[in-house]
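Annex B.
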Amino acid sequence: MSNRRTFAIISHPDAGKTTLTEKLLLQGGAIHLAGEVKARGAARRARSDWMKIEQQRGISVTSSVMTFERDGVTFNLLDTPGHEDFSEDTYRTLTAVDSAIMVIDAAKGIEPQTRKLFEVCRLRSVPIITFVNKVDREGRSVFETLDEVADALALDVCPMAWPIGMGGEFKGVLDFATNQISRPEGDSREFLGKREGAEDIPADIAEEIELAQAGYPAFDIEAYRNGDLTPVYFGSALKNFGVAELIEAIAKYAPPPRPQPSDAGVINPDGKEVTGFIFKVQANMDPMHRDRIAFMRLVSGTFKRGMKLTPSGSGKPIAIHSPILFFAQDREIADNAEPGDIIGIPNHGTLRVGDTLSETNKVRFTGLPNFAPEILRRVALKDPTKTKQLRKALDDLSEEGVIQVFYPEIGAQWIVGVVGQLQLEVLISRLEAEYKVEAVLEASPFDTARWLRGSDAALKAFADFNLSNLAKDRDGDPVFMARSSWDVGYQQEKNPELVFSATKER
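Peptide chain release factor 3: predicted structure tokens.
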């Protein structure tokens, strides 16, 4: 298992994450052509973006998994949504990785979404390698970028390389470890790095390098793996420059599979029992077959095809006959898998996000919460005869984590909740494309929701006075639908015996 590297790429939209993903796959030999992708002009999309709305809008709105091998190391790359409206799916993906690459645009530095995703990594002490992208374009000074990472994210930074000039003056990247410069050669669309000695660095750059090596801490692998220090690399994903060094860094420094928290204590990857957890469910990846794939992160033991595992949700053992390894849209049957690997399990709604799978059913992995929705809308059908199809679609999509669905105790119209506006567009698009259901979203009288916990008596007493503000989620758990945050505070004060929770552990 020590040769597994399971990592995610996080960034603000437009920092170059999708391009970097493609170039990592190219360098790793998983694809043989940049744009295999087979695309034209502006429609060029990386293979990890397969959903219709992603292709139309040119953004990633779901998380994909891509596995490739290079020099004896198996890389499991989880491509996370970069769009600011997809924090919930991104959060769950980050629970399944052991490290992350943070992509920063050399001209823009740290943007709001980068900071938000970084905070999620920090919650789980996920170690981060920073890749400063687009150094072949005009950007800010390298010191300014490094100091911003250090100050804004409260991390030690350690430059592992240094760009020789930027923009029109860009002449390559000096690798501190080898003291060699990768110089760009090739046409304007793609550089091929030629490594040579660092004899003729301009005086001003030489001075910068001396300052950087004296002023920033040396690389410390323990500090990096504890999430306290980030090594920084420079390059251009579009020009395929600096990408090989990035893969080498992941292979050399990124941690192998890490222990995972559970209700039975920490589960180590070298444990004998096969255990794992579902961090994502995706329906209709292949629209021709109406499939449903649960993505499982293997935590311990050696998984073998055909073995029986018990999901914590149902408690009934299931035999896993067709486990899948992914390369974006391509897949192959996995005969076995090791800790750190991500496998897809085809199922018909038996597996859900947050389920633990194990041989004995004695362990539950923790830390995959639902978040209180920030936007609530009523769903209205254009064709009232399609109520059954709508219910099925909403259940499916809430199971995937695209939306949350609430069924009011009074009133017939169902309410969907999301953490970002774009998810509503995804909902309408997928209802139409995959379920042939046309619906519109209408304003809801509610502003947010809180899960209720307490004794049966306290819950009943609360319901007697607040039935019009109560709903059930898809699990049948009680939810207080609040008209404002003031409403939440008021009810908490009036009902101290109840817990009004903004998150719900899966």
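Residues 85 and 421 are 6 Å apart (CA to CA). The domain at 275-358 is CATH 3.40.50.300 (Rossmann fold). Further annotation is deferred to the next reporting cycle.
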